[in-house]
Specification:
Blueprint lengths: L9 H4 L1 E6 L4 E10 L6 E4 L2 H7 L5 E5 L2 E5 L5 E8 L2 E5 L5 E8 L6
Antiparallel strand pairs: 1-2, 1-8, 2-3, 3-4, 4-5, 5-6, 6-7, 7-8
């Protein structure tokens, strides 16, 4: 019998996260505040995140098997699959990005 993965609620994933490429570490906050696009939630970060990703990251959305970071229109910029205690994205340029949960206090944008 096949089983399907459960879609997590944004409240289950919101909070402070660390995002790293092995050299640079950025602090981001996944919020449960919906963006006008409707299917994505606001993400707070700083210029570190834009430098790391190569594009401005404005939002995120949960998926049954991971977390997708998006631009402000909801277009996917990176998909992070859940691996043990971390979430990993493999980018087309060969880089590996790792997200780890670090708490529930907010950061400023």
């Amino acid at each position: 019998m096949a089983s399907s993965l459960r879609l997590p609620e944004p409240a289950e994933l919101k909070g402070l996260w660390q995002l790293s490429d092995g050299n640079q570490v950025c602090s981001i906050e996944l919020t449960d505040t919906r963006l006008p696009e409707g299917a994505i939630w606001a993400l707070k970060g700083d210029s570190c995140l834009t430098e790391l990703m190569g594009n401005p990251v404005e939002g995120w959305r949960p998926t049954p098997d991971g977390i997708t970071l998006t631009d402000d229109d909801g277009n996917s910029l990176a998909f992070f699959g859940h691996e043990s205690e971390q979430w990993v994205a493999y980018l087309v340029d060969g880089r590996e990005l790792v997200m780890t949960f670090s708490g529930t206090h907010s950061v400023t944008k």
